[in-house]
Design a protein that fits this description.
By secondary structure, the chain is of the alpha+beta class. It has one domain: Alpha-Beta Plaits, CATH 3.30.70.100. Helix content is 41%, strand content 26%. The protein has helices spanning 2-20, 39-48, 76-85; strands spanning 24-31, 53-59, 64-70, 90-92. It has a 4-stranded antiparallel β-sheet with strand order 2-3-1-4. Strand 2 and strand 3 form a beta hairpin. The protein is globular, with a radius of gyration of 18 Å. The chain starts with a helix and ends with a strand.
Length: 96
């Protein structure tokens, strides 16, 4: 019985431990080729489909997307690829 309790305890720690290291990240992507009011909707839907995305805000005037995501499930490269695959090439926006 003690072995089962120990095993269950270790399993619980591994589950909790893996989420304890997770953190939300926010990144701003520059998005090219947006030319109409519907473009941000397409970009937003493409990025929202990426696992781990918590929120997406696409600004047509600034030609950028601000994305908050779980860093253990995705990264900015996958977010940019999702936008690019939808026809709107994206890359990290310069910090300047």
């Amino acid at each position: 019985m003690r072995t089962i309790s120990t095993a269950l305890g270790m399993l619980a720690l591994s589950i909790v431990g893996s989420t304890a290291w997770a953190a939300e990240q926010t990144v701003t992507l520059a998005v090219d080729n947006m030319y109409c009011a519907l473009c941000p909707v397409t970009v937003s839907k493409a990025i929202e489909r990426v696992d781990g995305v918590a929120s997406v805000e696409v600004d047509f005037d600034r030609k950028e997307a601000v994305v908050t995501y779980e860093d253990t499930q995705t990264n900015w490269e996958a977010l940019a690829a999702a936008s690019t695959n939808a026809g709107y090439p994206a890359h990290l926006k310069d910090a300047s």
